[in-house]
Design brief:
Two copies of one chain form a homodimer.
Chain A (H helix, E strand, L loop, with lengths): L6 H13 L2 H8 L3 H15 L4 E2 L6 E2 L1 H29 L2 E8 L7 H12 L2 E8 L2 H9 L5 E4 L8 E9 L1 E6 L19 E5 L5 H13 L5 E6 L2 H9 L4 E5 L10 E6 L6 E8 L5 H12 L3
Chain A binds a DNA duplex through helix 3.
Chain lengths: ~300, ~300
Amino acid sequence: MSYRLEIRHFEYFLAVAEELHYRKAAEKLYISQPGLSKQIKQMEEILETSLFERNKKKVALTAAGTYLKEEVKFILNHLEQSKKQVKRIANGQLGEIRIGFLGSAMQEVIPNLLLKLQQQFPEIQTNLEELSNRAQINAISSDRLDIGFVRLARVPQGMQLKKVFRDTFSLVLPKNHALAERGFKGMEQLSKESFILFSQDYSPLYFNTVMSICEDADFTPIISHKSVHAQTIFKLVENNLGIAIVPTALQYGFQMNVKFIELTKIPQRAELSVIWKTDNRNPVLKHCIDLLVNHNL
Amino acid sequence: MSYRLEIRHFEYFLAVAEELHYRKAAEKLYISQPGLSKQIKQMEEILETSLFERNKKKVALTAAGTYLKEEVKFILNHLEQSKKQVKRIANGQLGEIRIGFLGSAMQEVIPNLLLKLQQQFPEIQTNLEELSNRAQINAISSDRLDIGFVRLARVPQGMQLKKVFRDTFSLVLPKNHALAERGFKGMEQLSKESFILFSQDYSPLYFNTVMSICEDADFTPIISHKSVHAQTIFKLVENNLGIAIVPTALQYGFQMNVKFIELTKIPQRAELSVIWKTDNRNPVLKHCIDLLVNHNL
DNA sequence: CATACTTAATAACTATGAGTTATCGATTAG
DNA sequence: CTAATCGATAACTCATAGTTATTAAGTATG
């Protein structure tokens, strides 16, 4: 007494319900007929309900049995689907990844990643959020993001960092600027300009790199404005409120009326890195890293 | 190896997924911690997927485990519902009953039955079909109906019959008939009338009863018309094409312009019976019979 | 930093019950 | 009638769920 209903019972029940013949059902299940009889009987006792009429050489479903047959088919099928899904999730073929990024990553790296992800794993969903370097670090270490695209030299313990994109810097000038057409020779010419830069808070590495660029040209830049949005920076430049130095990739993807001059001769590069928590086991994460690292996006 | 997934696994998994603590989960399940550990491990082997991360004193769900937790909750709940439904069907609280009836049963007995059924078992559905006595017998013996309302004296082997309603007969006269107002004294006055009756095929018992009523009055009726529809009979009477003798209950429920005279003095009665197949196990049937027999509809 | 107290996993064992073979009684077909 | 076939029952056995005892590893506590 007080047995528990098990999936075994359902499979046995379904076989009998389909064959309406104990011996045949038992054969199909590769068990003996008495064993099957016993299990069905036990099942009826557990449910306190007779599921088959077996009078006079005939096996037939009761009303309750007829209902249960459909339910069992549904449950067993659902179960099978769930098992498959579990494996697919474990393989990272199905799932979700939460991505943080700096606005400047949206020009090149992110669209490429999303495209490849979509092609190779159409059932992976992405959750994208534009955040500062610091906010990404925080979100990742507290498991609110799986992966981040940052401009940082290093990350805290327990996190990994891989460079994924190396870009030149470009000078951003108003269209009517004296140096805008062929006049530009070198950074030295800019010592008296006022600069519009991304905030130091938003991206210290960027800020420090720009400072080092100016330092190499032997001046300390006058900083008139700071912003966290490329769009804002371009607008300010457009309105003659200063000039900017930004990663070259930013010249695509914005509506603006400014002049870009790529600074190929200076050694500094804008490096975008992907970061993630070392112990993050989201199987989708692995695919993303693989795509980013191996496929040279 | 090659174990099978069982409901036990799901229940154990859910306990651990909720507690995130093996010992506590084991306590909740009233089993030992090592037993639980073993079963979860087995489950992971069956699914070929790790469901928990258990590094360093911490138990946490993997992505696959997180998904599975929701699925398991759904499945276990669905299972519980199904079990309850099965019992309710077996108890006849939920289900369907297919009812056949003579048109004349629709005046009294059927509406009463449906009303009580609806009140006591709101989840029982009924399937109603107006059929002749013979058609009901056939439908019931071939399991196309569960129950029938007939006017018959006996039924074939393997079927049961219970009288459920006893009605007087009434004379049906055209409004302008000589006997329509107070003129009627007894059946003897009708020996020269022509009669409109229900077909012998449709209801032999009715037919024979009417014949015996006339016989008691020492005449053999002249039959001008036969029909299977009360409506038709009334229309023919209304148009002076004859007179009729029908169960009194039929005077309600039809639009007609005829005179009913209840024949209380003759001994014959129109008896409506309910019939069903003895071995019909539809649990709803039992309720219907109970309602009809015990509650004196 | 040792000590006491967690935790989950492992090992060895037990005993429950799923599934076995053999058989029965009932029904049907020939 | 006999032979064949059905599901149920009885008695058995053996796989395995769950046990106790223990270990290893981690975490507080003083």
